[in-house]
Amino acid sequence: MRASTTDVADVIVEVVSDDKTPSFFIAKTLRSIFGKTENDANQLSHAVQRHGKARLGPYLPSVAKTLCGAVQKYADAAGHPLRARIAPEDDALATPTRCSYCEREHAASRMMYAGRDSLICDACVLGCAQQLRTATPYRPHRHAHELLDWHYGGVPGADLVVVRRAFPWRMRVDLQRALEETMRECEASCHGVSWTDTHMELTAAMLLVERGNFARTLSPLQYEEIDVGGDAPVRCLLNALWLLRDGDTPITVLLTRRPRDETAGLTISIASPPGADSRAFADRLFARLVEAIEQAHSYRGKVLSLERETRFNGYAGGIAVHKLPSVARDAVVLPESTLQLLERNVVSFAAVRRRLIGLGQSGKKGLLFHGPPGTGKTHTVRWLAGCLPDHTTLLVAAQEICDIGEYFALARLLQPAIVVIEDADLIARERGRGGPGSEMLLNELMNEMDGLKPDAELFVILTTNRPQVLEAALAQRPGRIDQAIEFPLPDLADRRTLISLYRAELAAPDELIDAIARRTEGVSAAFMKELMRRIAQCVIERDDPSARGAIAEDIDRALGELALGRDGIGKGLLGIA
């Protein structure tokens, strides 16, 4: 005879409150008899005291009966009237045993929270809390520490890890562009922080731990505008605090400026709970910022100089971008041999530089442009810059020579580059001719030129009107100066070319052009340019409707005003030999 089996329905066990058993004993019973964790036992104990009972299960009837007996025995031994019972069948059937949100069984959850008619498991409670946190970014806060306390969910500031890096101040445009792009991708919220002490750096630790009168106040975001040569300036934050989450990890990123009495720079600080995930985020962010600075899209291929002060137009200082007019080869009036020497040593060299480096040759080149004032040295530099649009040109004026180290650092970053040091004789004069300050600058210049790596893609161009006073260790040593190029005063043919170039729209017959060229022997190109402007002014002032252009009287008057051959100082200023 085969035995038949009958399904046995599970039952619910109720722990019943008697208003006499203390809460700690109820929790102890739940841990000892039902195997609950300390946290779950405490929550169930509070539920017993609030609602008069707490439900556990479901269990097999035999198991439930054993548990109820064990509770009574355990309570009697301790002298407490606590009891457990099997819930009435009708009540048990009406009592939900699954999470009403995810339908997880009570036994599969660490904790079930009971409402009037339904249950919700601990996992769903945590999930809802996370959704609410995302849907409600933050309540208005006045101080930074309040905002950070909310963001980190009560994690003590002392338990966080802060990692920071300092970046060059002059590269803040590219740095901020990369930083803001990353923060947008992370859907980070951005906040301003009030900070007026220029002699102390704002740190993440200050925001986290300083309270009371020392608490840092949240403020509007503050920007400065920087000209990078585009149609509109770029706005850069003075300081900012970003809040974001990388997965489940709360992270803050702080942008601040270093104090005035330290090397100018920006500091990026990342604060997060310790762990591999937060460290990986910091590594990714710093790598992206370094890449943005190395690419330097804001300045690469432009004509630059360094500056320290805010300009009259209100733009912040740092790096000035110069918009130089393009110069065609026909506008560079020099002997053909000089032009060929320039093209071979600069344009042609740049074209084959990579192949030279591949053959183990040096990719850097030093050039010395020398000649009387006004012979076109600076003008030629502009032409060369236009011939090499992929090169960044750095113009070093005499008053900026104290920043020579920073110029070369920027050139190495932005290479291929051209470093132009004008009036080099002011610092590179022969030792003994200048003071100790000049010798220090000369040594720094030579050290920078010697320190360039062989594969550096740099041109270093020095211009001077007095090559004879240059230090021999600089001007006569290959590796520092590889080619000296003379810029002579224009001959008769070149003066004719200059007259045709600089007269622009001014009408002048060929015989008049020849007369001007013959009467201006020994003058510079700069003199010819000024002479043609004076002649044009004379034509306008003469106001003769019948005159269609310049006449001999205009030439006589212009040359007379320029005091040709009369004043030694005037001759020097105008480039007259």
From TrEMBL:
ATP-dependent Clp protease ATP-binding subunit ClpX zinc ribbon domain segment(s): 96-135
Family matches, as Gene3D superfamilies: 1.10.8.60, 3.30.1390.10, ClpX chaperone, C4-type zinc finger domain, P-loop containing nucleotide triphosphate hydrolases
Keyword S-adenosyl-L-methionine: no
Gene Ontology MF, one: ATP binding
GO BP, sorted A to Z: protein catabolic process; proteolysis
Homology family: Belongs to the AAA ATPase family.
Protein name, UniProt field: ATP-dependent Clp protease adaptor ClpS
Organism of provenance: Tahibacter soli
